[in-house]
Design goal:
This protein is mainly alpha-helical and 261 residues long. Helix content is 61%, strand content 4%.
Length: 261
Amino acid sequence: MDTMYNRLSRLISTWWFYLLFLLVYFLPSYTALPFDPQNTPELIGLVLSNPLIYAYPQIMPLFKFIPVVLVAALLLYGKRAGPWFLVYAALLIAAMAILQNTAFTEKYGLAVLTGNIIVYIVVALVWFLELLQRKTDFSQPTRSLWRYWVVPVALLAFWFPVSEATLGPEFSVANLVSNSAGLTTCMMLPLFLAILSLYHPRVNRITLRISSYAGLITGLLNVLQWFILTEHWWIGVVHLPLLTIASYTFWLSFIKISPRK
């Protein structure tokens, strides 16, 4: 495992890795019916608005409850809860990679966002890798209060205060406990990255780096999608936690901080 870790460490130190990873995002999407690549923004919107992972809305409250339990377990039990958090993150990211980027649409039939799937399968694999390597020490989060700025930002994403009717703001308890955020990569990845940031530098650098880079690119694409290509500005706002936290944790993955902090 140490040999694999060292090889991957060298890989993420090369400039071409990031270029290749970026290009994967733009692989052609698959559609069962003819598709004009110029309609890619429309296709992305259609898939992400009604993906397969949202097929059973009755289970959505469960996926808002489990992360809360896991975060509480990390605070109470530290290292002993770490593997459970890692298993959940890895499995959820893998499920979201496939099921959130696949949908049956009226216009294009079965549609698959190929690039997104590949990128987040890679992200899921590095979380599984951490489960095997155990490079992250969950015994005690940082004592530096300024680093907890990620908590309210991640909470905004996890809450996902969006009205289904208007796509505008709706800060309700019902949204907090039962909406689709628990099954949405753009809302859950900020939470996972925020947690890792609070244990930095005692974290798996590979897991942090690759997850952050994927989130950073996705966040930038969402800013383009929601603030420029469409008029749903509030959807753009609730995607900003992904961009800000991923940018921060990507930076963290390059620096070293005294373990005492």
